[in-house]
Amino acid sequence: MIRTALACALAFLSAQTAAASGPVPVSGGAAVPKSAVDQPRSIEALMAALEVEGAKAGVQPATIRRVLAGHEREPEVAGLAGAQTEHERTVGDYLALLVTPERIELGRQRLAEHAATLAAVEARFGVDRHTLTALWGVETRYGASLGTRQVIRSLTTLALEEPRRPQFWRAELLQALRIVERGDIAAETMRGSWAGAIGHTQFMPSTFNRFAIDFDGDGRRDLMGSIPDGLASAANYLAHSGWQRGETWGFEVTVPYGFDFALAAPAMLRPLGFWREQGVARDGGRQMPASSLEHRLLLPAGAKGPAFLVNRNFRALLRYNPSVSYALAVAHLGDQIKGIGPFVARWPNEPALSRADRQEVQERLAALGHETGGVDGIIGGLTRSAIRSYQKTRGLPEDGHPSRDLLERLRAQR
Ligand code: CA
Q1: Per-residue pLDDT averaged across 276-299, rounded?
Q2: How far is the CA of 201 from the centre of ligand 1 (A)?
Q3: Which DSSP helix (H) or strand (E) runs through 152?
Q4: Residue 372 Cα, ligand 1 centroid: separation in angstroms?
Q5: 101 in helix, strand or coil?
Q6: E-strand spans in 123-260?
Q7: Is the pLDDT of residue 5 over 90?
């Protein structure tokens, strides 16, 4: 699912759709709305608010009234949005769950079945067929799990009942009404995830209206009923996110003994030659692929886990879903559909930190004078810098990774 507007706030929604991983988080600490304007509590008040906002968005009052009349709430949906269990799965566990032999094999079948469509999409948008097929596989198991909830009903419930981001849900509801008004998908047939993500590649309504493509030429942008529309729309989104034609996402590497892990910072985008000079190599002495793109070193599980050089195409995948686990799952599945073998290095066998653990890491780092940007349990850039600065003071590898070992060290710290 694409969440440009909400970027990191709804991390792992996509994983929820694809992997049935249970309740999924609306993370972050947004304020509870103060007034009825922020969050209307009745359907009448909601329709009134939508009419005002719809005037700017070009949605007719008649559409709002017609679609929302006789609305029923979907009680479970608000509860799902409230569940807070995110990120308690390691990258290794996430990949094992999503990139299975079955999903690889099914991907190869889909690639063959839809070869003509994928070739046409690749030619127009520059996104290769393996990545697109993998994205489709991760999002909805190649269309097998589009989601069965009525999108309008889910979004209406969230706009009325979800306390943290009512304006976000209301804006998405308005965008869903725009889809109906344009005749792309009818209200009754618009189904998706509990959060309102629609179709084969799980577009939120706002993303749908900006990036959906009618690729089969029937006049409708039908991301549910048309596989060509779904795949082309995802490719269009990735192209707008900076996907570079003719390039892969990156590749697995090894780092030499004594490597300076501080180089594995997100801002360290460098040409491949730089990394070769640092002793970064491919397993078994294989050549690095030819690429003119800058790459950064990614250590999703810290210094003890697999290492990757990734480029702007990987970043485009992160714009689809701002989770490294997600982007790596698409990348890895795409490689294996293509016939490139699995990753060589093993994932460390260590449990994921819970939200409470992550908050404790932040608290303890802050107490030692390392600025984490708050104690929200979200490991962002500031927390990673704080971990690095702590690791530096202790003479540890500066990988910025919030491991169990790090937490134990912080606890033992006097
Ligand atoms: Ca169409």
Answers
A1: 93
A2: 14
A3: helix 151-161
A4: 47
A5: helix
A6: 149-150, 191-192, 250-253
A7: no
| Torsional class of 245: left (φ above 0), alpha (ψ -120 to 50), beta (otherwise) | beta
The DSSP bridge partners found for residue 149 are 192
Tell how far the Cα of 190 is from the centroid of ligand 1, in angstroms. 15
Q: Who surrounds ion ligand 1 at CB < 5 A?
A: 214, 216, 218, 220, 222, 226, 229
- Cβ neighbors of 262 (< 8 A, separation 6 or more) are 388, 392, 398
CA 229 to ligand 1 center in whole angstroms: 6
Q: How far is the CA of 200 from the centre of ligand 1 (A)?
A: 13
| Cα 38 to averaged position of ligand 1 atoms, centre (Å) | 36
* Contact by Cβ (8 Å): 185, 151: no
Q: Ligand 1: distance of its center to the CA of 387 in Å?
A: 49
Q: At the fourth CATH level, which superfamily is domain 2-85+148-208?
A: Bacterial muramidase (1.10.8.350)
Percent of the chain with pLDDT strictly greater than 70: 89
Residue 101 backbone zone (phi > 0: left; psi -120 to 50: alpha; other: beta): alpha
Q: What residues contact residue 258 under an 8 Å CB cut-off, 6+ apart?
A: none
Give dist(CA 35, CA 53) in Å, integer: 17
Q: What's CA 66's distance to the chain center, in Å?
A: 33
The length of the chain in residues reads 414
226 C-alpha to ligand 1 centroid (Å) = 6
Q: How far is the CA of 225 from the centre of ligand 1 (A)?
A: 8
Report how far ligand 1's centroid is from the alpha carbon of 25 (Å).
Answer: 32
Ligand 1 geometric centre to CA of 186 (Å):
13
User: Is the pLDDT confidence value at 11 over 50?
Assistant: no
Position 35, amino acid: S
CA of 1 relative to ligand 1 center, distance in Å: 20
Cα dihedral: 365, 371, 376, 380 (round 10): -100
pLDDT tens track for 50-86: 999 999 988 999 999 999 987 888 888 877 876 645 4
Distance, in Å, from the CA atom of 50 to the CA atom of 36, rounded to the nearest integer, reads 13
How far apart CA 63 and CA 382 sit, in angstroms, is: 45
Range 360-382 average pLDDT? 92
Name the residue ranges covered by the structural domains of the chain.
2-85+148-208, 355-412
CA distance 10 to 7: 7
**Residue 113 one-letter amino acid:** E
